[in-house]
Amino acid sequence: MAFTAETHVRLARPSRDLGAAERFWVEGLGLTVLFRADAGREPGTHDLLMVGHPGGPWHLELTRGPVDPRPTEEDLLVLYLDGPVPEDLVARLLTCGGTRVASPNPYWNEWGVTVEDPDGYRLVLCRRGWRP
């Protein structure tokens, strides 16, 4: 099967605390838990949380395992909202463990709101739409 625009995309990253991550991404942003696994104590396994929109073309996979997160201020997940960034959404993300931060790139400060998740990865809520 070929790689196409319909190909499902998984964004995978480590997490220090899957409970805190779930609160941010599910309660804060509004994603759904698609899958979770508790690795227990078996060697070579790790705890796993997948969040996204059911039936959507992408999901975020968060793992708690042997690697700790090492985000930079340029590790961005950008959501193009094509309209104003809802203040209640930003407030919910902050209540659910996020931290509002300024971006080193003035573009994101002008066109959106940047919030760090509990692991330090950045979510940008952009008021622009995506049109290639």
From TrEMBL:
YycE-like C-terminal domain mapped to chain residues: 75-125
Pfam families linked to this entry: YycE-like_C, YycE-like_N
CDD domains recorded: VOC
Residue ranges annotated for the YycE-like N-terminal domain, each copy included: 9-63
Stored Gene3D superfamilies: 2,3-Dihydroxybiphenyl 1,2-Dioxygenase, domain 1
Name of the protein described by the UniProt record: VOC family protein
Taxon lineage: Bacteria, Bacillati, Actinomycetota, Actinomycetes, Kitasatosporales
